[in-house]
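One-letter codes give the sequence; the fold follows as tokens. Both lines appear below.
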Amino acid sequence: MAGQPVDEDHTVSALTAAAECRRVLRAHGLPVDMAWVPLETAGHWCVITVTADWRQRFGPAAQELTREIAETVLATRFGRWMARVIVLDDDIDPTDLAEVVWAFATRGHPRDGRLTFEDMPLLPLMICYTAAERMTATGPKLAHNCLLPEPGPQRPRRCSFAHNYPPEVRRRVREWWGESGGGG
């Protein structure tokens, strides 16, 4: 069994899984921008970002898009060692674990944004499953719909220094902050 992340097998398997998931999802015509398997999750999460035009290409049903993405990912040979599939808008960088965790925590409804897939094939080494599930190599998998509402008044704005100020203002603030030794 692999060690606590990040271990050498996490880097090889996660990078390969991410590339293959992206290829398979696009081959199925799904509006996928990126697939990433965060190394820190020991390959147990697959984070998918969808293109900004996904509603025009797929329709307005975020939950159905999440279901189709998850079913496609979990059907791959790598799907056996993924316990969760997280679907996000493409304003999130899936390679930035801090952004992923923030988006997962703030954009995914705790009940309505979750899809459960029962009796799915799994890798028996995954300790998040019970002994009985590991013995039968089947157990539940989750997909999380963390897609924002369509653009308009109901869509929350992303609020951060990087997203709310023009580049020139950010540059001047950083210069001032550096010159003043912390803004004092």
